[in-house]
Design a protein that fits this description.
Layout lengths: L1 H23 L12 E2 L3 E5 L6 E6 L11 E2 L6 E2 L11 E4 L7 E6 L7 E6 L11 E2 L3 E5 L6 E6 L6 E4 L7 E6 L6 E6 L7 E4 L4 E5 L3 E3 L2 E4 L8 E5 L5 E4 L2 E4 L3 E9 L6 E9 L4 E5 L3 E3 L3 E3 L1 E5 L8 E5 L5 E3 L4 E4 L3 E9 L4 E9 L16 E4 L5 E9 L3 E10 L7 E7 L9 E7 L4 E6 L12 E4 L4 H4 L1 E7 L3 E9 L11 E9 L32 E4 L2 E2 L8 E4 L4 E2 L2 E7 L14 E3 L8 E5 L2 E7 L3 H4 L3 E6 L5 E9 L7 E5 L4 E2 L3 E3 L1 E5 L9 E5 L5 E4 L2 E4 L3 E9 L4 E9 L18 E8 L2 E15 L3 E10 L7 E7 L15 E7 L8 E5 L8 E2 L7 E6 L3 E9 L11 E9 L30 E4 L2 E5 L13 E3 L4 E2 L2 E7 L1 E4 ...
């Protein structure tokens, strides 16, 4: 079995072998050897049964060396060629020298027997560090081969003195080579002494006081070692000398010596004689003298110490007056003469003297009694008796004025016309005041003025008008007297006139109280209008006999039964002259056919008593003409005399006038004068416009809108009239009429004025209705106290800007004043006159309007109707500009309440500024002309969080207000509507928001709410409701300024409330080229400039301005322990506190110097830090000095904060208070810059602000920068130089830019803060306080200065 199985297995093996053999023969059954076959380049596997190969490939891998081939990494057989040597490092086998090359060898790492050798270049010379030298050169030398190198001539430094030379022996010197240290010795020539000094010019020099001269000295020999000259004056009080410059102080002699400074004895002298010449002469003395009278003139020669003060007296016409050597002038004949006084050196002064018939001394001489006088002899407070005399060379006038009170403005006013008509060159006005002053005017028909009647060009004393008027005003027991002489040439008249027209008016005042201001006169111009001053019919005629009176009244005299006494008509007639007032005529006689002169007796003061028998009544029943005769002047007028047995009506008045409405009625009546009149009492009623009102038997019926004039006329023609307003509603004080309900009111709530809370809050609801024929205006005023002087003032402008009347064009601005208690104050109306003063109004101009004031429990109401014609409108306007204000008083009823509410803070002069007005249109209150106030202030977006939910409602209140004059808040805006159903008005400009909590989703992203005024959208805001607690504010804390390369800057933010849901802050910078900021508030400075840092939290944004400066200040003055310190980057620059040491205070050449002081006064600084600021020029007189700062040609910035407590304490005129200054006294213009300040008026009481000035090398005097500078308190003053431009800043405002020469060298200067260095202007300054004084070595930009100002840096 086993054998059989074995046999089978063997057969199987044989079968397999047979099959394999068969497979080889068919190329599919190769069997390859496991070992590699190879040759020199390849390797492969060979088939065991045939020549087939497999995996044939080139040898690879391995590394050939210099001794063996590479071994194939696949078959393990060597192949290829042997490799290169693998060398080691070169090793020196022979060292090189400076004369011979060396060698170096390297060995193959694979076979040490393989080596390679090469040469090494020669070595450098070994010269060492020591220099060798001779007298000329120095060099270094090789220690091996001694080869020389670096051969060069000695570079010697400066010679230094070893032994000083003298005037008898040489000195020694040496110098050393900077490279090798070799020293060379030399000789210094002995000094050359000054042998002689010669002063150019005469040996005696004459100067005038204050004259300056320069002496020039010649020094020999030319090669003298020290040619410096020391100048001295024997008497500095006479002449002062400095560096050859002379300044004469006072009369006298002084020897000036020039001495060589070398001490070898050379000198020269010159004598200076100072004289005082007459610079001017003034003549004083009376400018008038009577014929044969004398007047002594005096000549005042200036200066007081002039050497020769003698004068020679002369006149230009001895036939008029003579003058002796003592200045006594004697009048010879009537006329004008010029008297002259001439000094020895030819200075002349003159005076014009008038020789008059009589002395002009205020005394009525006999000559005035030769002509008739004019007299006002009525019962008024003032009377005047005036005499006019025609002299040969001029007009004489004497006036005796009776006045119970002579005030400072009481005066006589004369209008003189040479001829029959008023004309240019013929008419003049002269005012002679009781206080002795004079004003004169010339009529000029070409003058255009808001007062169309004012045609007078005032003489300010520059023309011959006032100069040729001689006058005296003398106070008398009953008033004052005026005497005047005016030469005819003053009026352009060449010869004595035959007649002329004169209006002598008197302006008088009633009490001493009214003397304090230009108040109303009782008798000014005799109550005639200014236009009548230019009417010859209203003037007085004068001829050679004096006053030639012309009668103007009466025109008719009626005597009736009431005048009968015992069968005689007894009555008085007052005859008045051409002036319509108290001027009456005396000394008259009366005549007509059948007239008996015995019927008339003169009672005085122009009153004549008539007594005509009753039996003559028939002759005069129809009226008879009476001729009035004025003595030598003849007939002066006539009147009609009527005698009647009845009592006629003389005049009537209408009663019962009141406004009405269309269809309404007003019952009018009349009263008669005299009350017992018995004839002519029948009255006829008429209207001037039946379309407005009709009248029957005194009953007026309104028929249309407007104003009608109703007239009542008696049977004898006596009339009276009344204006009747027919309007849409009654003007009766009821401001709740239906007419006023459909308009938008302006609601003013005076709760705050500036920062002061009102102690007497005032509210005023104003409504303006544009009626068909005029404006309806109502005011509902709440005032806790309505005093006697409480009033409401209304200003209306119908145009876009105020305009005064011009030609036929009427004014467009009006001012109405309404007193709550009219019996205590005066209602009046004014019209704008275009003047530029505090009260540019023509006052008491009659304007037609209708008003009623009613007092209420809480204040008062005003209802007004102003016809359009009153304010120069012909039709209903589209808009008007309107301003209304209340003046209210304290409880005593007399004094103004301080600060709160009066004029709403508007200055009186600005009451004509349309920007301060509100605008009304047909809908009512519209807006203001100034966007900064009056209009509705924008309403901030409102975000209500969950913390604002009360009783299921998101609730809050807000106020809508407007701003007036920049002061917040007293003008609340009511009557607004919102397109949001959840907003309602509470009152007085307050509004309430109440949104149900379930509506939060509707407002989650914010809803825009429109603010409506009627149908007009006037604003909008966003209303947002959130379930969070929102951020309400973010505040940034951090520096205002930083510097490139300075300390790190860190900002922090405070978020309110502290429990806000999302208090996370996001930081950003607006200009990342200036600075960047990370989210931790860390700032990285990038470059100079200004950037805005913002912090945002919960949608609320806060901003902070950061200014980045190029570099810190090189000088920064700080104060510590009673001293000043420079904490800037250049601490080597010295700062100090000093006092002025006065060297000389005479004349204009004031000199001084500064010395150190520790006695200083420190006060609170800019930021309130104790002892943080230096007060200069205090009782110890200390100043701040920066020593020797080199401005040179460089750009720079000088900056300081200065505190001034009161500008009125500043210096005046040339004595300016210096902010800072630098100057060299010998340089003009200065070699530096000054900045100074003074008050803007030399009169302290009139000063209103400061005046800033500067001085630079480009100008020779101080230049005014700004005249009215509000400089009180802390302010920053900055001066920059950049190239050719100097700029001056006040706080952040650029006030001036001035050029400076290119590369102008300002040199090194002491810079003083608080006092002048300039010897010409060493004035004492007002106390100034300094803080943050700094100098930068570059020019700050305007933005940087603004940022530093804002940060108080």
């Amino acid at each position: 079995m086993n054998k059989r199985m074995l046999a089978v297995a063997l057969l199987a093996i044989v079968a397999v072998l047979c099959m394999t053999m068969v497979a080889c023969n068919t190329a599919h059954e190769h069997v390859y050897e496991t070992n590699w076959s190879y040759n020199e380049t390849e390797h492969w596997h060979k088939c065991t049964g045939c020549d087939e190969v497999s995996d044939k490939a080139a040898h690879s891998g391995g590394k050939a060396t210099c001794t063996a081939k590479a071994i194939c990494e696949v078959c393990g057989q060597p192949y290829g060629e042997t490799g290169d040597h693998e060398w080691g490092e070169w090793q020196q086998t022979k060292a090189p020298t400076c004369t011979e090359k060396g060698t170096e060898t390297r060995v193959c790492k694979n076979n040490p027997e393989h080596t390679e050798t090469r040469d090494v270049e020669k070595a450098a010379h070994d010269v060492g560090t020591n220099w060798l030298h001779d007298e000329t050169n120095h060099w270094k030398e090789c220690t091996v081969c001694h080869t020389k190198s670096d051969i060069a001539a000695h570079d010697f430094g400066e010679w230094t003195e070893v032994t000083a030379p003298t005037y008898v022996a040489d000195g020694a010197k040496k110098r050393t080579c900077n490279t090798c240290g070799y020293s060379e010795n030399g000789t210094i020539d002995k000094l050359v002494a000054v042998s002689s000094i010669t002063i150019d010019g005469e040996q005696t020099l004459t100067l005038k006081v204050n004259e300056v001269a320069t002496l020039v000295a010649t020094v020999l020999p030319d090669n003298a070692t020290d040619k410096t000259i020391e100048w001295t004056s024997f008497d500095n009080d006479v002449v002062e000398v400095a560096r050859g410059r002379l300044l004469a102080h006072k009369a006298g002699d002084a020897v000036i010596t020039a001495t060589a400074k070398d001490g070898q004895g050379a000198k020269a002298t010159v004598t200076v004689k100072v004289i005082v010449e007459a610079e001017s002469v003034e003549v004083s003395g009376e400018k008038h003298v009577a014929i044969n009278g004398t007047v002594t003139f005096a000549a005042t020669v200036a200066p007081e110490n002039a050497t020769d003060k003698t004068v020679t007296w002369t006149t230009d016409n001895d036939k008029i007056a003579t003058v002796d050597k003592n200045g006594v002038l004697t009048g010879v004949a009537e006329g004008k003469v010029v008297v002259a006084a001439t000094t020895a050196n030819g200075k002349t002064a003159t005076a014009t003297v008038y020789v008059t018939k009589v002395a002009i001394d205020g005394t009525q001489d006999e000559v005035y009694n030769t002509v008739d006088a004019f007299a006002t002899n009525g019962e008024d407070i003032v009377t005047v008796k005036d005499v006019v005399l025609f002299g040969d060379k001029g007009l004489y006038m004497f006036a005796d004025i009776t006045d119970k009170f002579v005030g400072k403005n009481s005066h006589m006013e004369c209008v003189l016309t040479f001829g029959d008509t008023v004309a240019d060159g013929k008419t003049f006005q002269v005012r002679l005041y009781a206080n002795g002053s004079i004003r004169a005017f010339k009529y000029d028909s070409t003058i255009v003025n808001s007062n169309v009647n004012w045609k007078w060009g005032e003489d300010k004393g520059k023309s011959d008008l006032i100069k040729n008027i001689i006058y005296t005003v003398k106070t008398t027991e009953t008033g004052y007297a005026v005497e005047m002489f005016a030469s005819y040439e003053a009026f352009g008249v060449t010869e004595k006139p035959e007649k002329m027209m004169i209006h002598p008016g008197v302006w008088a005042y009633t009490t001493a109280e009214l003397n304090q201001k230009n108040s109303k006169m009782t008798n000014g111009l005799y109550k005639i209008g200014e236009a009548d001053l230019l009417s010859t019919e209203k003037c007085l005629a004068f001829d050679q006999y004096g006053y030639a009176a012309k009668m103007t009244s009466p025109a008719e005299v009626v005597a009736n039964a009431g005048d009968l006494v015992s069968g005689v008509f007894k009555f008085a007639v007052t005859v008045k002259g051409t002036i319509n007032s108290q001027q009456t005529i005396e000394g008259l006689t009366f005549n007509c056919e059948g007239f008996d002169s015995s019927w008339v007796t003169e009672a005085g003061k122009g009153v004549y008593n008539f007594a005509i028998p009753q039996e003559k009544q028939a002759e005069f029943e129809s009226g008879k003409t009476i001729t009035v005769i004025n003595g030598r002047h003849g007939a002066c007028g006539t009147f009609i005399l009527t005698l009647s047995n009845a009592i006629p009506v003389q005049s009537i008045e209408i009663t019962g006038a009141a406004p009405t409405i269309v269809g309404g009625t007003v019952n009018l009546g009349v009263t008669y004068n005299p009350a017992n009149a018995d004839i002519y009492k029948d009255v006829t009623w008429t209207t001037d416009n039946e379309q407005i009102a009709t009248v029957e038997n005194g009953v007026v019926t309104g028929t249309g809108l407007g104003v009608a004039t109703i007239t009542a006329t008696t049977a004898n023609g006596k009339t009276a009239s009344a204006k009747i307003l027919v309007a849409e509603t009654l003007i009766d004080g009821n401001i709740d009429d239906e007419l006023y309900n459909n308009t938008i009111a302006l609601h003013n709530d005076t709760l705050k004025y500036k920062n002061a809370a009102a102690t007497n809050p005032i509210t005023n609801d104003t409504k303006v209705i544009f009626g068909e024929k005029g404006l309806f205006i109502t005011h509902k005023v709440v005032d806790g106290f309505v005093g006697e002087q409480t009033r409401l003032e209304t200003f209306i402008c119908t145009g876009d800007k105020p305009a005064a009347a011009s030609g036929s064009q009427a004014a467009n601005m009006y001012y109405f004043r309404f007193y709550v208690h009219p019996e205590k104050g005066k209602f009046f109306t004014n019209v704008y006159n275009g003047k530029s003063d505090n009260f540019p109004w023509n006052t008491d101009v009659p304007l037609e309007l209708f008003y009623v004031i009613t007092i209420t429990e809480k204040g008062y109401n005003v209802e007004v109707f102003i016809p359009y014609s009153t304010i120069a409108l012909t039709e209903k306007p589209q808009t008007i500009n309107f301003l209304s204000q209340q003046l209210f008083y304290a409880a005593d009823g007399t004094t103004f309440k301080n600060a709160v509410g009066n004029y709403y803070g508007i200055e009186q002069a600005k009451l004509i500024d349309i920007n301060n007005y509100w605008k009304f249109d047909s809908m009512g209150y519209h807006s203001s002309n100034n966007a900064s106030f009056g209009t509705i202030n924008s309403i901030e977006d409102i975000v209500l969080g969950i913390d604002k939910v009360v009783d299921g409602m998101y609730a809050t209140e807000f106020t809508v207000n407007s701003t007036i004059q920049g002061y917040d808040s007293f003008s609340a805006v009511s009557g607004l509507k919102f397109d949001c159903e959840y907003i309602t008005e509470i009152g007085n400009g307050k509004y309430k928001i109440a949104v149900p909590q379930d509506k939060q989703a509707d407002f989650a992203t914010g809803v825009i709410v429109k603010v409506m005024r009627g149908t007009e959208e006037v604003g909008k805001f966003a209303l947002k409701l959130t379930n969070d607690i929102p951020v309400t504010s973010v505040k940034i804390s951090g520096p205002d300024a930083a510097f490139i390369g300075g300390e790190n800057v860190q900002f922090t933010a405070t978020v309110t409330p502290d429990n806000a849901t999302h208090p996370e802050v996001t930081w950003d910078s607006s200009d990342k080229e200036v600075a960047t900021i990370d989210q931790s508030g860390n700032v990285t400075i990038v470059g100079a400039g200004t950037t805005t840092i913002t912090a945002t939290a919960g949608g609320i944004i806060a901003e902070h301005t950061l200014v980045v400066l190029t570099r810190e200040a090189v000088v920064k003055v700080t104060y510590a322990n009673g001293t000043v310190v420079n904490s800037g980057t250049n601490s080597a620059i010295e700062v100090d506190t000093v006092i002025r040491e006065k060297l000389n205070e005479s004349g204009s050449a004031k000199t001084d110097t500064f010395t150190h002081t520790d006695t200083n006064t420190f006060v609170n600084g800019l930021n309130g830090d104790a002892n943080g600021a230096l007060k200069t020029n205090n009782e110890n007189g200390s100043y701040l000095l920066i020593k020797g700062y080199n401005l040179g040609t460089n750009d720079f910035t000088i900056s300081t904060w200065v505190y001034i407590d009161d500008y009125k304490k500043l210096s005046k005129d040339n004595g300016k208070s210096q902010i800072f200054g630098m100057s060299n006294p010998d340089n003009n213009p200065i070699k530096g810059i000054t900045l100074s300040i003074k008050r803007n008026n030399s009169d302290t009481a009139k000063a209103t602000a400061g005046q800033l000035l500067y001085k630079t090398p480009a100008v020779t005097g101080n230049q005014v920068i700004k005249t009215n500078l509000n400089c009180n308190g802390w302010h920053k003053y900055t001066v920059t130089r950049e190239g050719t431009s100097v700029k001056i800043y006040f706080d952040s405002t650029l006030l001036a830019t001035t050029p400076i020469a290119e590369n102008a060298d300002l040199g090194a200067n002491d810079i003083c803060f608080g006092a002048y260095i300039d010897w010409q202007y060493s004035y004492n300054n007002a106390s100034l306080v300094y803080d943050n004084v700094a100098i930068y070595d570059y020019a700050l930009t305007a933005n940087q200065i603004a940022a530093l100002t804002a940060g108080k840096m």
